[in-house]
Write the structure tokens for this entry.
Amino acid sequence: MKDAESGNRLGSYLRARRELVSPAQAGLPPGGNRRVPGLRREEVALLAGISPDYYLRLERGRDKNPSPQVLASLARVLQLDETERAYLLGLAAARPRAPRRKRPEHVPARVHELLAHLQIPAFVEGRAFDVLASNSMAAALSPRLRPGHNRLRSLLLDPEERAFQQDWTQATADFVAALRTTIGDDTDDPRFVELVGELALSSSRFRTLWARHDVRGLDGGTTTVHHPAVGELRLHRDKLPVDDVILVLYYPDKDSDSDEKLRLLAALAHTGPTGTAHDEPTDSPRPRTT
């Protein structure tokens, strides 16, 4: 995030999004010998009702104060959804600011107590998807949900996590887009810089997705995973903010096949592979990032 993108985030976003809109989607004839994917700059300008020269200035960062009307027209042409539109408006409204001193992410004591009582997979994550605390059911669901792991790093770089996800392609797209949304204008945050830098070097999938500039929330939803011991699990996901961290819960439909399998997983987690009861630590001083 220390490259040209961080200095011209509005222009980078506009360029990335126009490359994802085909002429057919915009109601234009495809034409021949197109040198760029998606729409040309002059086509975006024409459809938005602004001059090509003005749009060029926007993309090149020469004009960083477009009016709300211009932004609304560009959002329409680029076919942005509500989350993407809000992100575009935020980029235009961003102003230089002094670096903010970040407080260490802290899991409140009451949340540790809650984790210990929950009978479903539950864990606490930070803004960069670092696992900060988890209960035994989360660790039983996936060892990558233990404290010290980073969920996005595991998703992109760990072969076991790729096999765990039913739709790894969609999961990676959702997580990377959610990371960009979470970062917002905190492009100088050391943890974000570290994570983005590591993944950009280590994962071609990350580089491809990051260049798209997708943004979306990653809150509630339903996912299907393949557990090596109990098989396929269909689980709902809820994310609940608690102070500066997020409590994440996974749970099945009551009396469903996945509910039965999760109870079996709980029994396996309690007895362990040797058949003796055991408990696992669910907290660590700080996330492991390598």
Q: What stands out?
A: The longest helix spans residues 168-183.
